[in-house]
Amino acid sequence: MTYEDGDMRLMMDDDPKAPLRLSSGRLSIVRYVFLVHIEDGIPSAFQRAALEYADAILIGWPEEDAEDVVTPEASQYDFIAQQFDWAESHVREFMESERADKADDMADSLVQVADCIAAVRKSYQPEFLLPTFAEIRRVVEDEWNEDMGRIEAENREAHPGIPSDDAPAAQAEASDGASADGASTQAPAPQSSDAQSSDAQSPDDSGASRA
């Protein structure tokens, strides 16, 4: 289901907590679609950060009757509904990027959706501490750099004296060289039966044949 601008504002007149109930579902769907889209590859640090940010916004999503959930004042309705509408606009951008197979653009839209949904959650659960995307991204990039450093160290250990980027190529060249050496030491192929018969002829027979 999609929502048009203004739909949520109308719903809030009768159901002030409708955005809280519906927002988490919208973000969950976008997050899941993005996860499926990138799961066959190796996500970049930015893509991983986008996923973890969405997770952080969704974790422990409160029920409407939770003790720390408040009913917003009518003066907040416009702000909350606007955040929901903006999230929906970014969902549409996300879908366009998915059709174009642009994973980084999808990640960017996911972050934008999560930002809007975070604002909605904060309106209903003001005491709940939510991280920013910048905070999540710093942590993920540190982890990413550590992972890359470990991979490079493993490559250097496996191929000493060779830059890690060249290690796979060097390994392939060594394998090709070994194959060539093996081929050069192979025994000569056996002669055909006709050649063996010719070699077995006596000099006299050969001369008679020429005569």
TrEMBL record:
Residue ranges with Low complexity bias: 163-211
Region annotated Disordered, chain positions: 155-211
Protein name as catalogued: Phosphoribosylglycinamide synthetase
Native organism: Pseudoscardovia radai
